[in-house]
Amino acid sequence: MLKLAARYANAWNIAWYTRPARVEEEYLKLLEACKVVGRDPEAIDLTVGTRMHLLAPGQRPEPDTRMDRRFTRGSGGETASICHHFPHQLYS
């Protein structure tokens, strides 16, 4: 599927990963697919979608490993800090 995106897509959206390292892993696969098909990755608009669970000031998250895998949880500042570490190529 990435080879098709590399060859034909005008945009590529990676969605619902909550950790920057996972997004970067998938992005590197797209870069490799672009190399294979001979396409400049700069020609593809990149977006990322993730899920956030913002906690109120002083609120602590209840342990929930399922939610931890599906959402970035924390205060506004904590979640912003996590988003800041997403690969810069995705939002530059």
Count of strand segments: 4
Kindly, what is the distance between the CA atoms of the first and last residues, rounded to a whole number of angstroms? 24 Å
List SSEs in N-to-C order: HEHEEHEH
Radius of gyration: 16 Å
Q: How many DSSP helices?
A: 4
Provide the β-strand percentage band. 15-25%
What does this protein look like?
This protein is of the alpha/beta class and 92 residues long. The chain has a domain at 1-39. 43% of the residues lie in helices and 17% in strands. The chain has helices at residues 2-8, 20-37, 65-70, 76-84; strands at residues 11-15, 45-49, 52-54, 72-74. A two-stranded parallel sheet has the order 1-2. β3 (52-54), α3 and β4 form a beta-alpha-beta unit. The two termini are 24 Å apart.
SSE layout:
Layout: H1 2-8, E1 11-15, H2 20-37, E2 45-49, E3 52-54, H3 65-70, E4 72-74, H4 76-84
Helix pairs in contact: 1-2
Task: Please tag this protein with its features.
two-stranded parallel ribbon; elongated; 92 residues; alpha/beta; two-stranded parallel sheet
Short description:
The protein is α/β, with parallel strands linked by helices. The chain is 43% helix and 17% strand.
